[in-house]
Amino acid sequence: MKIFRNAFFAPLRVLLVFALFVSSVFLNNALAQTKAAADSQDKEREGANCAPAGSWTVPGKGEISVTDVIAAAAKRSVVLLGEMHDNTEHHRWQLQTLAALHAQHPDMVIGFEMFPRRVQKALDQWVAGELTESQFLAASDWNAVWSTDARLYLPLFHFARMNRVPMVALNIDTRLRRSVAAKGFGAVPENEREGVLPPSAPSAAYLGYLLPIYGEHERAGKKKNPGRDDPDFLRFVEGQQLWDGAMAQAINAGLSRPGRPLVVGIMGSGHIKHGYGVPHQLKALGVGDVGTLLPWNSGTSCGQMVAGLADAVFGTASLSFEGQDAPRQRLGIRFELAEDGGARVLQVEKGSIADKSGIRDSDIISEAAGFAIRRLEDIVEIVKRQAPGTWLPLKIKRGGDTIEIIAKFPAMPK
With helix as H, strand as E and coil as C, how does 265-329 read? Predict the structure, then answer.
């Protein structure tokens, strides 16, 4: 009987131990998930504490009134407004800040990173009221040179048009940046430089800032962990300097207009932070009276809120698409039409759908959703039609190989 009881209860003890083990695992996982959620909430609260939504903050000092921010900025020669290109809240903040600055200093010029110099005529015609929205976007070659949802920027363009504020194209064609990054500024023929002068040398701090950014971009045949003296990294830096320098030179030209207007630059925050990019290039041109204002996303680590980041930052709340149309889908690439057809990738944005899908610089997208890419508009139109939460098959030419990549578009946030 004892033997029978042992034989009967032994499996039960094993099952009990196993059940306790499984329960423990589930409990630990649940606790881990709860802790992760709490950490995320703590991080968001921390980001909200150092730059509350709807308030201005001076990095390293504390909150400041909107009256003081705008009054100080309006007295500058140049004010640079940063952005994450696809963040709706950032563009709303830019519009609000533009309106406040215009009320203080109506004699204004607005420069846009989004446009290369060759489309300046389209900007002039738009401000003059000579083009419709669709005509303006076509004439400015929007889909090819920027490709971000135009609805994000149209309120800014309409503000300039309504108030007859001149718009200035600050950028250069991606082809020139690519040439400089590949072989250096001196190797590019002078007649292909779009009138851009050699940019000022970067600071050591800027090199340190760019190095990890460069390292995150996968490049065929390049070192994974390059040093500051790596030739390819230095060419990459020269390409970034050209970008910053070209915009600074266009802004400086805007200052020479009659009445010396306030020039406001609309550009990615990376060109502004810490004064490394465009402010550094402006200073080299003799323009030191530059104001820098940035949006601050709720939930960003307060460790980044350091003195010198910008003159002031404005706290923006997390995005919510409830009750409104979400911006159209975007792959997150800068591209040109390849000679034999297809979209040649010039730059992959960090953290974008393209980046997460494994698309690299210099790839050629020959097909999307089974359709051959023959025009610049083809890839833009296909991506815009992509529904949230779906997958887009792409055929890629990389070197001598043809590979297939699936671009996964995230579902809409709830």
Answer: EECCHHHCHHHCCHHHHHHHCCCCCEEEEEEEECCCCHHHCCCCCCCEEEEECCCCCCCCCCCCC
CA distance 294 to 268: 9
Token pair for residue 184? Answer: 């250096």
Percent of the chain with pLDDT strictly greater than 90:
49
**Residue 410 pLDDT class (50, 70, 90 cuts):** confident
Which residues have a Cβ under 8 Å from the Cβ of 133 and sit 6 or more positions away?
150, 154
**Residue 2 above 70 pLDDT?**
no
Q: What is the DSSP letter of 126?
A: H
Are 377 and 143 in contact, with CB atoms under 8 Å apart? Answer: yes
Q: How far is the C-alpha of 280 from the C-alpha of 211, rounded, in Å?
A: 18
Query: What's the average model confidence in pLDDT over 139-159?
Result: 91
Neighbours of 16 (CB within 10 A): 11
Strand partners, 316: 297
Query: What does the pLDDT read at residue 14?
Result: 39
Residue 11 has pLDDT above 70, yes or no: no
- What is the mean predicted confidence (pLDDT) over 298-323? 83
The three-class DSSP label of residue 144 is helix
Q: Which amino acid is at 199?
A: P
Counting DSSP H helices and E strands in the chain, the numbers are: 13, 14
Global pTM reads: 0.75
In terms of DSSP bridges, do strands 62-64 and 56-58 run parallel, antiparallel, or are they unpaired?
antiparallel
Residue pointed to by tokens 């939504």: 53
Give the pLDDT confidence of 30-40 residue by residue, as tens digits. 444 444 444 44
CB 161 within 8 A of CB 127: yes
Kindly report the CA angle at 146 between 151 and 271, in degrees rounded to 5?
105
Token pair of 120 as six digits? 């300046």
For position 343, what pLDDT does the model report? 87
Residue 5: which residues within 8 A CB-CB, separation 6 or more? none
Q: Residue written as tokens 């001076």? A: 58
Closest CA to 335 of 357, 358, 366, 356: 366
Distance, in Å, from the CA atom of 97 to the CA atom of 55, rounded to the nearest integer, reads 12
Taking Cα atoms as reference points, which of 346, 324, 320 lies closest to residue 335? 346
Task: Name beta bridge partners: 124.
Answer: none
**Calpha distance 124→118 (Å, rounded):** 12
Q: How many CB atoms lie within 10 A of CB 267?
A: 24
